[in-house]
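Module 6 notes. Inverse folding takes a fixed backbone as the condition and produces residue identities as the prediction. Think of it as a translation problem where the source language is geometry and the target language is the twenty amino acids. Below is one complete input and output pair. Work through it position by position during the lab.
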């Protein structure tokens, strides 16, 4: 199915109908890209949240900040500023995460074949080159999770290409697992201090104490909703301040921390840098 050929006025009507059904919508310019920032947000500031990558929705009166501008409020959609945007729009988009949905964007026939073999059936919307498989539930968005497959949910937008066919099913673990990045090798970053001579057994080697600390660190990273890089650094710093000098940390423990960080979008390089900077701050 190709992009709908409705007129610009019909796009506004489509947007209002979708909003009434609970889908937060936004207009797209030619090239499937959002409109530029409003004058107030010329530098992507929008309330001090750069690029709107970590928070939302956008509270600006104009159509800016991409996915964060998506709204289901008919008064906003039909306002003067937005109406002018709809008159220039080439497509209607929506924020899947804002509607409690996840779109698995399959970009070619091979990706569709893979989905049929590995994912449960759900609502399917044909696209120009592939298909959108839509599930009920949200997760972090991620591009290129495998060849020809993107995930669009929170902090992302997808084109509206019609209702599709089939019935929505719950977001499966198989899709969530696609966005979990494999941790980078961490051995090169692990230079924890040895137990000082004469200090005896490490006081932190009790399973309950050490395990509780690692679990709390993983939870702190996993539950972070903004400033992810800062949260990762501060968590690494807290772990190292408690366990970095006694030698009780192992590769397994640090791999768990790196895995949690990378699941939130941190790159292997950022994980290693955050770990190294935390060690330097503590003089380890």
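Target side of the pair, the amino acids:
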């Amino acid at each position: 199915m190709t992009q709908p050929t409705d007129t610009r006025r019909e796009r506004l009507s489509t947007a209002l109908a979708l909003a009434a059904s609970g889908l937060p919508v936004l207009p797209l310019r030619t090239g499937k890209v959002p409109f530029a920032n409003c004058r107030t947000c010329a530098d992507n500031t929008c309330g001090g949240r750069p690029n709107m990558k970590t928070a939302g929705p956008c509270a600006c009166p104009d159509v800016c900040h991409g996915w964060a501008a998506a709204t289901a409020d008919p008064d906003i959609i039909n306002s003067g500023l937005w109406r002018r945007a709809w008159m220039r729009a080439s497509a209607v988009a929506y924020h899947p995460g804002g509607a409690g949905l996840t779109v698995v964007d399959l970009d070619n026939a091979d990706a569709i074949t893979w989905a049929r073999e590995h994912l449960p059936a759900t609502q399917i919307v044909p696209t120009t080159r592939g298909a959108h498989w839509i599930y009920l539930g949200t997760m972090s968005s991620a591009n290129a999770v495998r060849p020809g497959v993107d995930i669009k949910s929170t902090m992302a937008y997808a084109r509206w290409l019609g209702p599709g066919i089939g019935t929505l099913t719950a977001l499966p673990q198989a899709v969530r697992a696609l966005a979990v990045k494999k941790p980078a090798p961490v051995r090169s970053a692990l230079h924890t201090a040895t137990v000082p001579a004469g200090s005896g057994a490490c006081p932190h080697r009790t399973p309950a104490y050490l395990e509780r600390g690692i679990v709390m660190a993983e939870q702190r990273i996993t539950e972070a909703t903004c400033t992810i890089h800062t949260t990762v650094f501060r968590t690494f710093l807290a772990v190292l301040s408690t366990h970095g000098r006694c030698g009780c940390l192992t590769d397994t423990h640090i791999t768990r921390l790196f895995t949690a960080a990378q699941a939130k979008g941190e790159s292997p390089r950022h994980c290693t840098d955050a770990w190294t900077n935390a060690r330097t701050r503590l003089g380890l």
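Reference fact for the lab report: Strands lie at 25-29, 33-34, 91-94, 101-106, 123-126, 131-136, 142-146, 149-152, 158-159, 169-170.
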